[in-house]
């Protein structure tokens, strides 16, 4: 019995299946040949005779056969029906099914389409639509004197090509590193989970309120109170829930201060996040490729306001989209700062119905005071000012310092007692900070710096330096404690090394100052550490030795990244300190001397440039070209030396 079950029945089953396939396959092929050769042509002819109209003889799939003049033609209805190409007989092109937006034949008499029982484009599945061709599995037919009007194959790629062109155009005009998640800003300033909760909560409630009176929230505060940290934290929180649209973080010491790049940078981010927005601005840039060469107000209207107004009307965007501009006061043009506020305010009223909410952070500079103090009725916004020495600010700085010390104890758990530091030292450091996160973060970076890698002695050094600067409540300079800390950082650098340190800082400032084209003097925006060292004729060891004591104020990439990364100043207050002789003393004079030294070094490099140049397609003599080139470069370099002698 087991033999029958395991062997005989399976063998008989397999044999019957083979017999069935052997008999059925020829029958199937015969039926296919019969249908293709007789049944289908006969059925089509009968259908034509019963559905003939004055316009001609309708064919399947939305085509109409019209009486030709010297040849037959086929017309494809739809918005792209006027585009035509010739179809090669040996390789008929594939026609894509398209939706009919406008039908020029719909008002003609006696025209009848297929009934509901007949196949239609709407009933075709996506997989079948991909395989749709003019003739499905053609066999044994002849086409005489035929011209097909069909979609150009290139037309389907036009949209993608235009979008890529538009994105490349925006990319070429944007400021790299201004995004919230940019590597150039890593690590970005962030709020401690328990700090600035009142301000962050107010911004969140304003954003969630669908009945808010204005779509602009203006956060004001002096340097160092944590505005950028709040903006970064809000950006990360809104990005996690899909509310973030775009960000622009200004940074004067790092060269992100050009107002002409703000709109392209924001538009580039919007286009990445919202495909419908990308399609709209692609059409705008295709119609007028010079938009990015127009005024900032013109760019703002055509690349920000109009696209989002269109998306709102089409109900494509229903949730609020947040745009963040941080450090507006670090924009190099004061008139542009005011212009941005007015442009944003003009489109943030509920009547405009534009799905954009704006968070703007800046210092309360004098030229902006009139705008946020309600003196200008055209500016409508929610203004919120952070106090330097408020109760919440002091408490937040104290929490931040305590957590930083906890991190240091964890890192040096085998060397530092868990009771370190004493509470009196923590309170003293927090009181000296006076609510300024710029000082607190700089001090903590100084204490936990790997150079020399001794947090206990670094804390005592920091406190001793600060104690030399008794600060009263009536001090005019709110950064006196920070200035003393900066001064100590530079005083700790050996005199022989300090000269190269100042040269590096001077070069960094020149490279990031975009008031002049850097390529005019042989420099490029891709100024990596290795390139800077080469220009200053410093070895890798000398370059890094010159920066050894600046890790608390400058983000210095590792030697492995020297060919790809550059320096980043943590806070603009460092350059403010060096540029003010009243605050930095002799270090300001040393920086001025380093500035002239760097410009002189540039002139020396120009003498080694390739003397060959082309003028309207012809190569001039080497002597003439060298003279013209060097004259131009010397003039540019001297203009720099004269125009920026004190970095203003």
UniProtKB/TrEMBL annotation:
Acetylation recorded as keyword: no
InterPro entries named among the record's database cross-references: NPHP3-like_N (IPR056884), P-loop_NTPase (IPR027417)
Residue ranges with Polar residues bias: 113-123
Region described as Disordered: spans on this chain: 68-124, 175-196
Pfam families in the record: NPHP3_N
Domain Nephrocystin 3-like N-terminal: 202-363
Keyword vocabulary terms for this entry: Repeat
Designated name of the protein: Nephrocystin 3-like N-terminal domain-containing protein
UniProt organism field: Leucocoprinus leucothites
């Amino acid at each position: 019995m087991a033999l029958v079950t395991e062997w005989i029945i399976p063998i008989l089953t397999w044999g019957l299946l083979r017999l069935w396939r052997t008999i059925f396959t020829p029958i199937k092929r015969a039926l296919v040949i019969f249908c293709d050769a007789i049944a289908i042509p006969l059925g089509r002819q009968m259908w034509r005779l019963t559905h003939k109209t004055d316009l001609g003889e309708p064919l399947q799939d939305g085509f109409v056969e019209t009486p030709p003049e010297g040849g037959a033609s086929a017309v494809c209805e739809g918005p792209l029906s006027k585009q035509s190409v010739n179809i090669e007989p040996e390789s008929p092109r594939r026609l894509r099914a398209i939706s009919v937006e406008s039908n020029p034949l719909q008002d003609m008499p006696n025209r009848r389409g297929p009934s509901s029982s007949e196949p239609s484009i709407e009933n075709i599945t996506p997989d079948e639509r991909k395989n749709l061709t003019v003739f499905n599995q053609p066999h044994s037919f002849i086409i005489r004197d035929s011209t097909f009007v069909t979609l150009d194959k290139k037309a389907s790629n036009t949209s993608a090509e235009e979008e890529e062109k538009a994105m490349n155009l925006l990319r070429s005009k944007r400021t790299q590193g201004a995004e919230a998640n940019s590597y150039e800003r890593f690590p970005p300033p962030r709020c401690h989970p328990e700090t600035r909760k009142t301000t962050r909560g107010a911004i969140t409630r304003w954003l969630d309120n669908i009945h808010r009176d204005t779509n602009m929230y203006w956060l004001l505060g002096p340097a160092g109170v944590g505005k950028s940290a709040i903006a970064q934290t809000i950006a990360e929180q809104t990005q996690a829930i899909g509310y973030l649209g775009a960000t622009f973080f200004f940074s004067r010491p790092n060269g992100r201060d050009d107002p002409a790049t703000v709109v392209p940078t924001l538009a580039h981010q919007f286009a990445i996040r919202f495909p419908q927005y990308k399609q709209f601005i692609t059409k705008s840039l295709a119609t007028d490729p010079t938009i990015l060469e127009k005024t900032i107000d013109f760019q703002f209207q055509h690349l920000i306001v109009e696209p989002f107004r269109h998306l709102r009307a089409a109900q494509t965007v229903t949730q609020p989209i947040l745009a963040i501009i941080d450090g507006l006061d670090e924009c190099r043009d004061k008139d542009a700062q005011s212009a941005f506020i007015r442009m944003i305010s003009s489109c943030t009223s509920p009547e405009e119905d534009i799905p954009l909410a704006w968070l703007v952070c800046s210092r309360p500079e004098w030229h902006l005071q009139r705008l946020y103090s309600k003196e200008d009725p055209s500016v409508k916004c929610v203004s919120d000012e952070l106090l330097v020495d408020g109760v919440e600010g002091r408490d937040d700085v104290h929490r931040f310092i305590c957590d930083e010390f906890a991190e240091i104890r964890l890192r040096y758990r085998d060397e530092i007692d868990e009771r370190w530091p004493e509470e009196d030292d923590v309170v003293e450091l927090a009181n000296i900070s006076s609510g300024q996160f710029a000082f607190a973060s700089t001090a903590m970076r100084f204490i936990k710096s790997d150079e020399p890698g001794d947090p206990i002695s670094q804390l005592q050094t920091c406190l001793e330096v600060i104690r030399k600067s008794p600060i009263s409540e009536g001090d005019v300079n709110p950064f006196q404690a920070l200035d003393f800390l900066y001064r100590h950082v530079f005083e700790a650098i050996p005199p022989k090394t300090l000269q190269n340190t100042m040269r590096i800082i001077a070069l960094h400032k020149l490279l990031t100052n975009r008031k002049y084209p850097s390529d005019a003097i042989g420099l490029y925006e891709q100024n990596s550490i290795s390139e800077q060292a080469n220009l200053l004729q410093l070895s890798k060891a000398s370059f890094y030795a010159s920066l050894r004591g600046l890790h608390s104020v400058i983000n210095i990439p590792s030697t492995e990244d020297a060919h790809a990364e550059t320096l980043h100043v943590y806070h603009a207050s460092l350059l403010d300190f060096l540029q003010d002789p009243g605050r930095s003393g002799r270090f300001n004079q040393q920086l001025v001397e380093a500035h002239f030294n760097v410009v002189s070094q540039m002139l020396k490099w120009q003498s080694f440039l390739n003397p060959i140049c082309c003028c309207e397609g012809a190569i001039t003599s080497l002597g003439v070209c060298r003279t013209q080139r060097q004259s131009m470069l010397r003039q540019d370099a001297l203009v720099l030396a004269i125009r920026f002698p004190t970095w203003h």
